[in-house]
Amino acid sequence: MVVLNKIYTRTGDKGDTALGNGDRVAKHSARVTAYGTSDELNAFVGVARLEASGEMDAALTRIQNDLFDLGADLCRPEMDKDGESEYPPLRMVPSQVDRLEAEIDVMNKELAPLRSFVLPGGSKLAAHLHVCRTVARRAERLATELATEEDVNPAAVKYLNRLSDWFFVASRAANDNGDLDVLWVPGANR
């Protein structure tokens, strides 16, 4: 259980922070940037939830919890030493990716096939979900960049990849199952 009695610690005042294993790194390190972006994404999901209801809100709540799992995973390096830890690290698992895929399939059954790219927008919820999609893509790019230098759980990268797909399909669902989608018309303003 997490207990936060004091919010400020002053330990990062010189520009470094502690990872989940206790190592101190620069706040601008690739690992901190990756899990910080997943936290940013979580905040945008919270904004999207202001417009969501029913199953969409429930799904976004599950995603917010997963994003905390993802941050916990990304802030804990040393994948191969996990068995040596007093407290085993929380890692993303394939079933979290599988759940996203199943939810995408359910939403996608109601949508007509696309004939062009979709411009971000439509309903308020769809617009928020498009922002979530683009931040998820950035988080994925940062996680894959980190993975070129350090160990990263492959399930974490897969989750981010699938999550951006989830946000895209969910944005179409939020646009009256695609009826409110605004499609890109190449060269329309030449």
Can you give a write-up of this model?
- It is a single chain.
- This protein is mainly alpha-helical.
- It has a single domain, classed as Cobalamin adenosyltransferase-like (Hypothetical Protein Ta1238, Chain: A, Up-down Bundle), CATH 1.20.1200.10.
- Helices cover 53% and strands 5% of the residues.
- The protein has five helices and four strands; from the N terminus they run ββαααβααβ.
- The protein has a two-stranded antiparallel sheet.
- Strand 1 and strand 2 form a beta hairpin.
- Helix 1 runs antiparallel to helix 2, helix 1 runs antiparallel to helix 4 and helix 4 packs antiparallel against helix 5.
- The longest helix has 24 residues.
- It is elongated.
- The model has no long low-confidence stretch (mean pLDDT 90).
